[in-house]
Amino acid sequence: MAFTDLSIASEATIQPILDIAEQAGISKEALELYGNFKAKINVNQLPPVQKLGQVVLVTAISPTPAGEGKSTVTVGLADAFKQLKESVAVALREPSLGPVMGVKGGATGGGFAQVLPMEDINLHFTGDIHAITSANNALAALIDNHLHQKNVLNIDPRRITWKRVLDINDRALRQVTIGLGGPGQGIPRQDGFDITVASEIMAVLCLANSLADLKERLAQMVIGYTYDREPVTVRDLEAEGALTLLLKEAFKPNLVQTIEGTPAIIHGGPFANIAHGCNSLIATNTARQIADVVVTEAGFGADLGAEKFMHIKSRKGDFNPDAVVIVATVRALKMHGGVAKDQLKEANADAVKCGMVNLAKHVDTIQQFGIEPVVALNRFAGDSEEELATILEWAKQQDVAIALTEVWEKGGQGGVSLAKLVKQELQRPKNFQLLYKEEDSIEDKLRTIVQKVYGGADIQLSDLAQKQLVELKRFGWDSLPICMAKTQYSLSDQPKLLGRPEGFTITIREIMPKLGAGFLVCLTGDIMTMPGLPKNPAAMNMDVTADGKAIGLF
After folding, report:
1. Beta-carbon contacts of residue 504 (< 8 Å; ≥ 6 apart)
2. 70 an active-site residue?
3. Catalytic residue flag (residue 360)
4. Beta carbons of 253 and 286 less than 8 angstroms apart
5. Is 408 a catalytic residue?
6. Do the Cβ atoms of 401 and 372 come closer than 8 Å?
7. Of 472, 469, 453, which Cα lies nearest the Cα of 461?
8. 300 catalytic per annotation
9. Is 104 a catalytic residue?
10. Which of 51, 147, 293, 506 could cross-link 187 (Cys pair, CB 3.0–4.6 Å)?
11. Binding-site residues for ATP, please?
12. Is the alpha carbon torsion for 406, 412, 417, 421 positive or negative?
């Protein structure tokens, strides 16, 4: 019988979470148990440490439908460090039901490099994303109630920017009309839904460093504008207390484990193509309190998640990654070299060679931040020796550290070579630097990202973005970092432009201030904040047995 992620997870021996916590030095008093295998951590109960652990960031080349296995490598690398007798923890994002039911089918690693309990984590887990949905929609209800109850804040219903959310891909909800049915049913207006992980509340929860900070950030969120075009915030509505109450349990990071018993802290889940793509700051710092090495990941390629990790998460958290891993695969590089998805099984070293330009750009991007990355060549069945040799030889010629990685099949043992290379990088001095300053103009910050990270030529602002730019400067919001909302499939804003395109211009069609999160979301191309389901959703293959075991999660 062929192994699947679900079958491997189902047959794995899972330890009581109290045992995992004890091994990590977390007392029972600091835990809030969710059954035998999950717990929330009360970070205020953790003992102080003199030195926080080092951070290893795992990123990837531009993703393709072939899959790169970034989360799998992240988990496997943590287990590999454990095999090297290092004190280690892994910190990951929580899966969103949208991609789980849509395309991915699961997001907890794969093979023998997974986090457990896999079913729970991929579905409702400890309810964090549901709490964010409730808080977001409670705020939406309070806004509409305010309009209905005489609107003393003079909010212009046409300029409400706060949307409702749902943690499922549902394109039919992108644009809706609410308040129909007469005077007793509210004020009619246009509205819309985002996916929950695109909510500013998700970003706020992931960037707050305390409950008090969470409340203050929630208060700063802009929900719309008055008839006089002045901003209206959650503080104006006096709603921050209620929102904090709804989120107080969700704010605590979650403790689970890998198949090999490595502590795993999973918390927060913003997408990297429409948000900042990193697990929560409090989760990463909690992991740094309990381990000497923390392996974490950022969504999609280095042009998205890693760039935002540096410019947003590192800046807000006042720490830098100590090492960076870039995950690459033969099949993804073949696609970047021009091979169609249905032709990937055929060996094609020439296509791999052509696709190497994508890996080269991501290596260049990380080097610009002052870090020499390590490449994890994630091996898949069917990769030919010639194809693998092509990549290894390129790395040798470019003096780029690289390790063949087989964690899906072998677990931590398959990542030991990678862990040894990363360990060497952790011991070397760093010259970390950000690519732009917060006080740079919005145009300069955008141009820096496009030219240095994407390898493009310039930016172009739509008429709407130019008007918003004037407003942002008027309100003094132009000193915030940039959070680009861009396709993950290309370095450009055109999804089908693979490899390493050059000379392109990125069009900024809209700029949305997120004062609570502390950044400006810049929408490019046709990126959507509420995805749609594919032609054949993963949900169509999901079921449950009579005794309650999941079917179809992968």
Report:
1. 454, 456, 457, 492, 493, 494, 497
2. yes
3. no
4. yes
5. yes
6. yes
7. 469
8. yes
9. yes
10. 147
11. 64-71
12. positive
CB neighbours of 284 closer than 8 A, spacing ≥ 6? 55, 91, 265, 278, 294, 296, 313, 317
pLDDT computed for residue 381 by the predictor = 87
Token code pair at residue 457 = 């030529």
Task: Give me the count of residues in the chain.
Answer: 554
Q: What is the 3-state secondary structure (H, E, C) of 43-66?
A: HHHCCCCCCCCEEEEEEECCCCCC
Residue 453 DSSP symbol: I
Segment 205-216, tens digit of pLDDT:
999 999 999 999
Q: How far apart are CA 451 and CA 525, in angstroms?
A: 17
Helix (H, G, I), strand (E, B) or coil at 462: coil
Structure tokens at 373: 């990355």
Under CATH, to which class is 5-26+52-126+250-426 assigned? alpha beta
Sequential pLDDT tens for the chain (554 residues): 467 888 999 899 999 999 999 999 999 999 999 999 999 999 999 998 989 999 999 999 999 887 779 999 999 999 999 999 999 999 999 999 999 999 877 789 999 999 999 999 999 999 999 999 999 999 999 999 999 999 999 999 999 999 999 999 999 999 999 999 999 999 999 999 999 999 999 999 999 999 999 999 999 999 999 999 999 999 999 999 999 999 999 999 999 999 999 999 999 999 898 899 999 999 999 999 999 999 999 999 999 999 999 999 999 998 999 999 999 999 999 999 999 988 999 999 999 999 999 999 999 999 999 999 999 999 998 899 999 999 999 999 999 999 999 999 999 999 999 999 999 999 999 899 999 999 999 999 999 999 999 999 999 999 999 999 999 999 999 999 999 999 999 999 999 999 999 999 999 999 999 999 999 999 999 888 999 999 999 999 999 999 998 988 88
Among residues 38, 40, 70, 217, the one annotated as catalytic is 70
H-state helical runs in 369-441 = 385-398, 407-410, 416-426
72 is written with which tokens? 């799998």
Q: Catalytic: 477?
A: no
Question: Which CATH number is associated with domain 128-247?
Answer: 3.30.1510.10
Report pTM: 0.95
Compute the distance between CA of residue 129 and CA of residue 170 in angstroms, rounded to an integer: 17
CA gap 306, 292 in Å, rounded: 21
Which two three-digit tokens encode residue 381? 């069945």
Q: Quickly list DSSP for 487-546.
A: -SS-SSS-TT--S---S-EEEEEEEEEETTTTEEEEEETT--SS----SS-GGGG-EE-T
Catalytic position from the list 189, 347, 380, 452? 380
3-state secondary structure of 160: strand
**Active-site residue 467, yes or no?**
no
The fold of 442-524 is: Formyltetrahydrofolate synthetase; domain 3 (3.10.410)
CA 323 to chain centre: 18
Which H or E element spans position 206?
helix 200-207
Catalytic option among 104, 164, 423, 447: 104
Please say whether the dihedral angle defined by the alpha carbons of residues 487, 491, 497 and 499, taken in this order, is positive or negative.
negative
Residue 109 sits at the vertex; the CA angle it makes with 45 and 288, to the nearest 5 degrees, is: 30
